[in-house]
Amino acid sequence: MGCCEVLLKALPRNGQEKVMSLFALVDCNNFYVSCERVFAPHLNHKPVVVLSNNDGCIVARSNEAKALGIQMGAPFYKNKRLIEKQRVRVFSSNYQLYADMSDRVMQAVARHSPNMEVYSIDEAFVDLTGISDPMLWATDLRRKIRQWTGIPVSIGIAPTKTLSKVANQIAKKHTGVFQMDAQSGILQYFPVEEVWGVGRKTAQKLQMMGIRTAKDLQAANPRWIRSFLGVVGERMVHELYGRACLSLEGEVNKKNMVSSRAFGKKLTMLEDIECALSSHIQKVCAKMRAQKGCAQGMMVFLQTNAFSKTDPQYRASRVIGFEGPLSDTVTMIKRGKAILHDLYRLGYAYHKCGVMLLDILPKSQVQLDGLVMVGNDQLMSLMDQVNHHMGPGALFFAATGVQARWQTRCTLRSDRYTTQWAELLQVG
DNA sequence: TCTGGGGTCCTAGGACCC
DNA sequence: TCTGGGGTCCTAGGACCC
Fold it and tell me: What is the DSSP secondary-structure string of A303-360?
């Protein structure tokens, strides 16, 4: 498909009246912080932040923390003094909790929506075409999500996905639900760098062209924008104008899947790195099997800390193809370790390793194509079932190690209230 | 060996998002 | 001392073919 078709597939044909499209964006407010507050209500109205893996960066902030000037993505250590002084409550990431809470919110949205797309862990688009009273629909949904899950959400409603993102930001600052159309005067006050799809580089280019607000971009000639921002830019102009170029996306099967992580501390011994890599392979294989996929190859990488100004630097990676489609963790760990042995060099302080599964096929297609799966599938499916029942990590491979010297830092993590029996919330 | 246009497929890298 | 991890989409350019 050429780029014009990609761009225009959703545009109305000449002379044809198209039914006005209408989208809602349901977005959880400060999602990770809100998850923590559900189980610790005394944190309401207090400044709270949540950190990334390894307690490296700040990835979620309550409104109170934002008001203190704490920036999204800022390194934790650079804000430590401010955080202590202002008594900001700090949490390590608790992804089991956030993923489970996200499921609950998405199920609530699904119950009330004709057609939805889960866009990220804390956002969903809904196609509202045909809903008679969108504001009533949104107000009702917002109340129910709050009641059923404890999570506050904001809902923006508009004729295109891009405009619904704008509407959502307005909703966040005011009453929680906001509807607008392309003629809305608000676009005049909406900075262009906050438009969905405009990042740092694009914002700079637009500024140089004198485009400062969403209104300016909306009024620009799409062809001209295309000449320096490509089809992505042209699409943004149309979307801001109220012509929907983006529709709801169905569930996509991923073609590649990654698991990687910085170690909790520098590692020099091959055996420790083997455990870390095995653990990544175990994790990403389970994720791929949940999608009913199998991989045709893998990439393993190993690297030192690029931020370090004193450590000698080394980074290496290798790709291999399998003899047939594979989803068996046992075989995968063997192959991954073999690569690691080749990549490893003595004398470096390693910082991170990871694995990517490549060219993933649906298992259904493997059978159709007459390809032959390798590895023990029954054992894997049994293991997945047990872990689903008993909680993640109930069964694991010895190759991942039991001491976990490489384990990430997460000393400030709250309990995994909803996924681990031993960590249920205690009352009284 | 050089001449030319038109096409496909693949890969690397940039930009962006959450 | 301490700077996340997992993705998507698009484009340009190279290899190859006729």
Answer: EE-TT-SSSPP-EEEEEEEEEEEE--HHHHHHHHHHHHHHH--TT--EEEEEEEEES-
| Strand C-proximal protein residues, Cβ less than 7 Å | A 3, 6, 52-54, 56-57, 59, 73, 75, 77, 230-232, 249, 252, 254-262, 287, 305, 307-308, 351-352, 354, 408
A119 touches strand B (CB under 7 A): yes
**What are A145-171's pLDDT values in tens digits?**
999 999 999 999 999 999 999 999 999
Q: Are A324 and A367 in contact (CB under 8 A)?
A: no
Other CB atoms within 10 Å distance of the CB of residue A421? 9
The β-bridge partners of A205 are: none
pLDDT digits (tens, 9 = 90+) for A64-121: 999 999 999 999 999 999 999 999 999 999 999 999 999 999 999 999 999 999 999 9
A121 CB-to-strand B distance under 7 Å: yes
Helix ranges (DSSP H) in A115-183: 134-149, 161-173
Q: How far does the CA of A293 sit from the C1' of C18, in Å?
A: 38
